[in-house]
Amino acid sequence: MSSTTTKVFLTGATGYIGGQVAYELVNSKEHKFVVTALVRSQQKAEKLKAASDNKIIPVIGTLDDLTLLGKQVEENDVIINTANVDHVPSAQALSDALSEAKEKKILIHTSGTSVLGDGLDAKKGATTKVYSDKYDIDEINSLDLEQPHRPVDKIILDIHDRNPKVEVAIICPSTIYGISNGYDNVVSAQIPWLIKSTIRHNKGYSVFDGNYVWNHIHIKDLGDLYLLLLNKLLRGDDVPANRQGYYFGSYAIEGEEKVTTEPSEIEHTWRQVSAAVAESLFAKGVIESKEVDSLQPEPIIKLNDSEWAPYYWGTNSRSRGDNGYAIGWKPKHISNKEFFESIDADVDYQLKHSKT
Ligand SMILES: NC(=O)c1ccc[n+]([C@@H]2O[C@H](COP(=O)([O-])OP(=O)(O)OC[C@H]3O[C@@H](n4cnc5c(N)ncnc54)[C@H](OP(=O)(O)O)[C@@H]3O)[C@@H](O)[C@H]2O)c1
Q1: Partner of 314 for a Cys bridge, out of 56, 162, 197, 310, CB 3.0 to 4.6 A?
Q2: Ligand 1 contacts CB of residue 82 (under 6 A)
Q3: Does the beta carbon of 21 lie inside 6 Å of ligand 1?
Q4: Mean pLDDT, to the nearest integer, of 112-122?
Q5: Domain containing 234: what range?
Q6: Residues 299 and 271 placed together within one structural domain of the fold
Q7: Assigned domain for 97 exists
């Protein structure tokens, strides 16, 4: 690994998270990064090259091209995985290739705080259970393999045991909001999908009563966290890594003592988000009512054409990103006001760009 130029292989660079990460890498002041990005088509390759002023080198393939992934591991110092975070064969292929590494390599993988989610239950209400990536790491490392994202998380977290030359970390974002600086898809998933299906429902809706608490993070704060963590790992700083290297993409509250079923100033309920979405769409004359229906999972599955849809807005997932702050992360978009105001901008974006 050269101290001046670092070779990075990035998956998901045309996506929302990966686009922000790519932007951070090509604009980094501390390190010069040479970024090779996995893209799924020639058309996306051209788009990425043009939009990044030829700073990103595309390589065409998919997460199923396991030999290609192995070759990229050999040729690069750092691997950042932001494409489909539940893709087990590619995670296994990265692990196998990294286990053969003869010199220091770094892998930063992306997960998601659905890993903490509880199941669907009309009676459960909001939880007071909060997970800190710093203080509850043993509990996080013992989460059931049935939990979303866990199978891949586990493969990643085992890599350092297979080869101590490899340092791994997982960044695990909560609900990401805001428009990214990326190159192709620049919008998130959970809230934009809710906007689209609320338009189809012609009225607000939530999963049951929607009183389930989640955290959120602005995409630019998330991008800062990837870059900060990468720079620290490259310098060999003593930061949480490997089995301790779990970083929630969530804010934290200094000296937080009492957790209630009410969302704190760094959290939202999905009912609040549904209400804000309905309010915005109604104010723009798009839907007939700003009321929020409490729906059962079945109609939500139909509305979204996805069996997973009720889980997007029907679980509790309360996380605290203490590790980020511990390594010097200084997020700039913590205000809940900014989060709720961003919903109106998401609505405008969907109305302009999307066929619902
Ligand atoms: N957005 C959030 O709030 C959030 C929060 C936590 C976790 N996550 C997880 O993080 C991952 C990325 O999320 P995102 O919001 O950035 O999604 P996104 O905007 O849809 O981007 C996904 C990226 O991965 C690429 N990709 C997907 N499947 C691939 C495959 N089989 N082979 C190669 N490339 C593939 C896509 O390529 P194309 O451009 O060709 O489609 C795109 O570049 C997802 O797994 C998501 O579940 C998202």
Answers
A1: 310
A2: yes
A3: no
A4: 97
A5: 5-179+216-249
A6: yes
A7: yes
